[in-house]
């Protein structure tokens, strides 16, 4: 739970598959961005009652989101499994009708609670 005034220390991590925007897939940029939006909203909604999520959403313009890149679906799936094993709240977005995992997002967390599981991923470029 975040202490009063600690909302600025909260961060929501979003991890997108980098291969979606490159050949042979070559998804349009807007479609890739939409995947991140879907996952971030799904995580915020699923964990909306958590005190950290509420504090993050109430922080308005002070929200901090970090968008990272997983190289492919296998890396995204492995990350999801690691997060599950460590009881870290997250949501995987699966695009339909393709049934393809495209992105995952954590609920807002203090960075020091989750960074160790995400440090191998680079910022999305």
Walk me through the structure.
This protein is of the alpha+beta class and 125 residues long. It has four helices and six strands. 38% of the residues lie in helices and 25% in strands. Strands 1, 2, 3, 4, 5 and 6 form a six-stranded mixed beta sheet that branches. The mean pLDDT is 93.
The tally of beta strands, per DSSP, is 6
Tell me the Rg in angstroms: 14 Å
**Helix count, per DSSP?**
4
Terminal Cα separation, in Å?
Answer: 32 Å
How is the main sheet built?
6 strands, mixed
Question: Which shape, going by the Cα principal axes?
Answer: globular
- The run of helices and strands is EHHEHEEEHE
Attribute tags:
alpha+beta, 6-stranded mixed beta sheet, 25% strand, 125 residues, single chain
Please provide a brief summary of the model.
38% of the residues lie in helices and 25% in strands. It is globular and about 40 Å long.
List the helices and strands and how they pair.
Blueprint: E1 10-17, H1 29-46, H2 51-58, E2 65-70, H3 73-85, E3 90-95, E4 100-106, E5 109-110, H4 111-118, E6 122-123
Parallel strand pairs: 1-2
Antiparallel strand pairs: 1-4, 1-5, 2-6, 3-4
């Amino acid at each position: 739970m975040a202490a009063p005034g600690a909302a600025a220390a909260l961060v929501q991590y979003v991890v997108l598959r980098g291969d979606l925007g490159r050949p042979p897939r070559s998804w349009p940029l807007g479609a890739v961005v939409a995947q991140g939006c879907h996952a971030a909203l799904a995580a915020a909604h699923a964990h909306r009652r958590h005190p950290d999520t509420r504090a993050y959403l109430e922080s308005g313009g002070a929200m901090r989101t970090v968008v990272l890149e997983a190289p492919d679906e296998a890396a995204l799936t492995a990350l999801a499994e690691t997060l599950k094993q460590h009881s870290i709240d997250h949501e995987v977005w699966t695009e339909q009708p393709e049934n393809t995992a495209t992105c995952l997002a954590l609920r807002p967390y203090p960075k020091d609670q989750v960074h160790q599981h995400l440090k191998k991923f680079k910022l999305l470029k």
